[in-house]
Amino acid sequence: METMRQRFTRVTTEALDTDPRLAVVLADIGDEAFDLAGARLRHPHRLINVGIREQLMISVAGGLAQEGMRPVVHSYAPFLVERPFEQIKLDLGHQDVGALLVSTGASYDASAEGRTHQAPGDVALLATLPGFSIHVPGHPDEVEELLRREFVRDGRAYVRLTGETNAESRPVEEVTVVRAGRPGDPLILAVGPTLDPVLAATADLSATVAYLSTVVPFPAGKVGALASGSAVAIVEPYLAGTSAAALADALRDEPRRLLTLGVPPIELRRYGTPEEHRRAYGLDAAGIRRSLDAFAA
Amino acid sequence: MSSTVSPSSVQRGYDALPGLLELLRSDAKHDPSAASTLDVHWVLYDRILDVTPETAGDPGRDRLLLSKGHGPASFYAVLAAKGFVPVETLASFGRFDSPLGHHPDGALITGVEIASGSLGHGLPIAVGRALGLRALGRDKPRVFCVLGDGELAEGSNHEAIALAGRLGLDRLVAVIVNNASATYGWPAGIDTRFAGEGWSTATALASDHDALERAITAGEPGKPHAVVALVEE
Question: Which pTM value belongs to this model?
């Protein structure tokens, strides 16, 4: 099966053929894949590789957008979001222009590369900036749908690609109930690739499991309507608590207990596989179940 | 959003600038850097740029990106002299509902291409502008960027200088106002940093308007052009 990143490269290269205002901006990472897909041959002035210069990568996107183009900027999450963060804030946001930022690597896909290549804080950082839409797809089909929507928009958007993929794609509209519980049951919200481990962790529990892939803007109305009980949990594949404030705000009508699971803010200092990192952070099915049981106790 | 300003049709000459600056006098904190760019802005708007208040939204206009947004009084004075900003707006400088802040915001002023203030952002954006014009097949417009010798310390500028030179962005002109304000100086020269990356370069005294005009228009085909404008304190 195509990975999210392969789908991104293919769909974006196809879109370059049909949308003359689209441009891809890279800082070496990803350039070879776009080159092999034929993007450079067909669109030499709209596949822009700035070399290993991530600040410039974002500023160039800002300049392209000011000229009326739709820049798609891609790199590893830490080099796309954390290193050039002020450029994102000023050269996109404060200049009042848009861009589509597409990261790969997520929180710990680059498990063996170490902390330098991991960015569990990316969503929390971008959520501090006005006007961003933040998408965390859980399947390559969702990636394609989100990209095609964002190509033709003008705003600032972030699509977070990862190697962790759910078995099935789900609708990318707001919130989808995947397994309905009884009225008053706990609501468990699974974000992007956490859905399959959440489903495995809760197979024998009486609970409502719902899926969302867009966390900013947070679907407050839909989440509030689904929360019929007094307990709500959210499982996010990035920094724990990233959506806690938005979730609390969505549920402010009556008292509820909240549990926010995600990557804890620690320096793990381990290599190995993504599966091992997922387990170490308690985001595998067994870890999620342990946290839910402790929450219910 | 606070108030935006619309262009005025009144045009004023160089002799009017001291009076316009007087209206902005509350800018005491930023005064030295403000004065250093007055001649540069005047020469650009009076002799070089193909842009007027009426064509400020025209895709074919020349673009001026003020990267050195610190100390914008001289910029505002020249914009007022050229009709981009009504003179009566100058006295509101820095107030809550004024479009004229201590750092300019392009969203609030007609004809101002970017918001600036944090240093080292203008030239990298200008590179994006030039790449955008190239991708869109717009050959005529030029992209000018005014930055300072102190600002040149920001590493982001050097990312932009290298790429613009390698890609031969010949619609791009950087004007570096050199008032010797960089803390550790540029002992090997400012122009050499651009020339080494493939730019054409020229140097002139900012106060010699004819020489500055010649320096700005002395670019070579196939290369971005850097002008060092010397300011005597």
Answer: 0.96
Domain of residue B207 covers: 122-230
- Answer yes or no: is B203 within a domain: yes
Contacts of residue A90 in chain B, CB cutoff 8 Å? 115, 118, 121
- Taking the C-alpha atoms of residue A170 and residue A167, their distance in angstroms, rounded to an integer, is 10
ipTM: 0.96
**Domains in chain A, ordered, with CATH?**
4-160 (3.40.50.970), 176-296 (3.40.50.920)
Q: Which residues of A touch B (CB under 8 A)?
A: 23, 45-46, 48, 50-51, 53, 55-56, 59-69, 86-87, 90-91, 94-96
- B1: tokens are 């959003």
**What's the domain count of chain B?**
1
B111–A contact, CB cutoff 8 A:
no
C-alpha separations of A283 from A21, A248, B158 in Å: 40, 22, 42
User: A23 vs B135: CB contact, 8 Å cut-off?
Assistant: yes
Does the residue B29 lie in any domain? no
Q: How many CB atoms lie within 10 A of CB A294?
A: 9
pLDDT, tens digit, 9 for 90 and up, residues B189-225? 999 999 999 999 999 999 999 999 999 999 999 999 9
